[in-house]
Design a protein that fits this description.
It is a single chain. This protein is an alpha+beta fold and 687 residues long. Helix content is 50%, strand content 11%. A hairpin with a 2-residue loop joins β21 and β22. α10 runs parallel beside α24, α14 packs across α15 and α18 runs antiparallel to α19. It is globular, with a radius of gyration of 26 Å.
Length: 687
């Protein structure tokens, strides 16, 4: 980065990704009125280049092309150039990614799209080598001069495509049939077809964790007791936790694995992956009590707190894959380095972490990974388990110390609402499962931080940095924060969180809802108008905002006895049900909602001075269709109204579909009622 150059307009932005480009010789503009107006005034095409701070190939293209004065000259001469951080502006990214795919190209980042001065896309691509890039720029500039009408006509066709509703695109119609056991089985079978039975996960390389699919598998197993589903879930969670995708030394997961064995990660660490994986491993622990899952949760939270948390209690977005311009350099070790560090203990460490002289990564480096449990390893190597655990603890401390001397990967220090909500839900789920007071403290602090800094005048903002919240929030921000606040209420019984969730839900119904299709738009009614207003249906690495909203409406409908919420949740699922059954790997969160509609939810109301203790006894068991409400005195919440502690003893009311069983006074009795209410599909260990 040539600091001796004059900066371009990106110097005034807060996004680290945009700031990385602030000294490029390209005359970059941020997305906004100024650039769009300039294109119209000068009758020039727009070049919109989209990426994000932890994107490896985005950096490569910057160094090769955007930092080259000659290439920049071509860009500046023929185009108005706009740089976009896709994490700040997922709306702009979604429109242009959709356009690229409509052009018959594979999506990805960096995403480079050419638009006419009306901001309508006519051509695009992803990464280009410098020579390819210059040729493309000149060809497009030439075509724009000579075949302007043709390009405008193409752009109109793409805009027409962009404005086709998602329901129409997938050929979906509202399903008349209700949820059924047969369809639920078909849904599972369609997912199971993609299981990699050797290495876990779905399909081949590259492998993304996709937590929503495994959260569904947990619910499916709970409902059916199908051992094959549990077996695949355990295989996947073990392989990921043992693999290189998991940071064996510092905790936390990389974004994906480039191979099918979860060994070689794409080293960037994203907040949204780690938040969801904390949720997944916490829930899996509730069901299985597998110690490995507990370790993963504790280590991943420690990583997030140590490396991604701001002083105010918000979480930063990501860590780059590269340090010193080399991918993974911060995380890997040569055998020689380890021999010098650990001397006579090195052979056993090398065996434990599969370290070799030739290495399993570039330049003789090793990505540390495991293949078996500590119990198994101790036995194989004739060690006492406690001795091995102590050794591993010491190894990790020493290697963390070595890493602390290295140059760290770049930190993307913007604080995003939706990603923080995902981490908040993870922390709340970890407390729900393990009862660790520190997790509760982190969760409450983060929830209060968001409500204080990202919510103003009843609406949310997406981004927070250096004391300023900016960019109107998207449906994703509302949906994920509402879901997280519901869980925070369940671990605190503080009704302010539930009331905040309801108020935000009502805001989305006013400002995001499409009456015609009975689904939610991604952008606020009052937000900047793009060439298309999109809806998000498919559950990707982050669940779709519509599936999260449909689940929120279902839960809040129960808490507040709101028939309208319940009916809307049913309608939303019925719109996409056909796709959920056919393509569950892209509809994992919708599939979990299907489970909720199939098996009635237990509404558990706890009243009395021991309500928090009673809650923590119940929440240590895996009961995914249980909703908890509680108060130490009295409450106007519909689930708690007119309920009291009988004879001064803390009392539990277990209800299904507005019908309650006899009130009881112990967690054991309540669990027995829950077991019966669930058709005795699940056996709880005795308390």
């Amino acid at each position: 980065m040539a600091k001796d150059r004059n900066p371009n307009r990106l110097i005034n932005e807060s996004s680290p990704y945009l700031l990385q480009h602030a000294y490029n010789p390209v005359d970059w503009y941020p997305w906004g009125e100024e650039a769009l107006l300039k294109a119209k005034q000068e009758d020039k095409p727009l070049l919109v280049s989209i990426g994000y701070a932890a994107c490896h190939w985005c950096h490569v293209m910057e160094h090769q092309s955007f930092e080259d004065p000659k290439i920049a000259e071509v860009m500046n001469k023929h185009f108005v150039c706009i740089k976009v951080d896709r994490e700040e502006r997922p709306d702009v990214d979604a429109v242009h990614m959709d356009a690229l795919q409509a052009m018959g190209q594979r999506g990805g980042w960096p995403l480079n799209v050419f638009l006419n001065p009306d901001a309508k896309p006519f051509y695009g691509g992803t990464y280009f080598t410098p020579q390819q890039w210059v040729n493309l720029l000149l060809n497009i500039a030439d075509a724009y001069k000579k075949n302007r009408q043709e390009l405008d006509h193409t752009a109109e066709q793409f805009v027409q495509h962009l404005n086709t509703s998602e329901l129409a695109r997938f050929g979906l119609q509202q399903s008349k049939s209700k949820v059924s056991e047969e369809e639920f089985e078909e849904l599972y079978r369609n997912l199971a077809k993609q299981f990699d039975k050797k290495h876990g996960g779905l399909g081949n390389a590259p492998k993304f964790p996709m937590p929503a699919n495994y959260l569904f598998l947990l619910r499916y197993y709970y409902h059916t007791q199908n051992e094959a589903a549990l077996k695949h879930l355990n295989l996947t969670l073990h392989e990921m936790a043992y693999g290189g995708i998991y940071d064996q030394i510092g905790g936390g997961f990389a974004r994906y694995s480039v191979d099918e064995k979860w060994l070689v990660p794409h080293f960037e660490k994203m907040l949204y992956d780690n938040g969801q994986l904390i949720t997944l491993y916490s829930e899996a622990y509730q069901l299985t009590k597998e110690p490995l899952y507990k370790d993963v949760v504790y280590e991943t939270i420690a990583f997030a707190e140590r490396e991604l948390m701001s002083e105010e209690g918000g979480f930063y977005s990501s860590l780059d894959a590269d340090s010193e311009g080399v991918e993974g350099k911060f995380y890997v070790f040569t055998r020689k380095e380890l021999q010098a560090l650990f001397k006579e203990e090195e052979p056993i460490l090398a065996k434990y972490y599969h370290v070799t002289t030739t290495g399993n990564f570039e330049h003789g480096q090793n990505i540390l990974h495991r293949r078996i449990s500590d119990e198994h390893f101790a036995k194989e190597n004739e060690l006492e388990l406690e001795v091995l655990e102590e050794m591993v603890k010491t190894w990790k401390e020493k290697l963390m110390e070595v890493r602390s001397q290295r140059i760290r990967p770049g930190l993307d220090d913007k604080i995003l609402c939706s990603w923080n909500a995902i981490m908040l839900k993870g922390l709340a789920d970890a407390y729900y499962t393990f009862g660790n007071k520190h997790f509760l403290h982190l969760a409450v602090r983060n929830a209060d931080f968001m409500l204080q800094h990202l919510k103003q005048g009843g609406k949310l903002y997406r981004n927070y940095k250096k004391g300023t919240a900016s960019i109107d929030a998207f449906l994703e921000d509302y949906a994920l924060l509402i879901g997280a606040l519901i869980r925070v209420y369940e671990i605190t019984f503080d009704e302010k969180y539930l009331q905040e969730a309801k108020q935000l839900t009502d805001y989305t119904l006013t400002n995001f809802f499409d009456e015609q299709e009975q689904l939610f738009f991604f952008t606020d009614l009052n937000a900047e108008k793009l060439v298309a207003r999109k809806k998000e249906l498919l559950d990707n690495v982050i669940p779709s905002s519509n599936s999260v909203m449909a689940t929120n409406l279902y839960l809040l409908g129960l808490y507040f006895d709101e028939e309208r919420y319940q009916q809307l949740s049913d309608t939303m699922l019925s719109q996409v049900k056909e796709l959920v059954v056919k393509e569950p790997s892209h509809m994992g969160n919708w599939a979990s909602l299907y489970f909720h509609k199939l098996q009635p939810t237990a509404e558990v109301a706890i009243v009395g001075h021991l309500a928090p203790e009673m809650r923590s006894e119940l929440s240590s068991f895996y009961i995914p269709n249980m909703l908890l409400a509680g108060t130490e005195s009295q409450s106007e919440l519909p689930l708690l109204k007119d309920r009291s502690a009988i004879n001064g003893k803390t009392t539990v009311y277990v209800c299904y579909n507005k019908t309650c069983l006899l009130p009881v006074h112990t967690a054991a009795e309540a669990l027995e009622q829950l077991q019966k209410g669930n058709g005795e599909s699940t056996t709880f260990p005795s308390l």
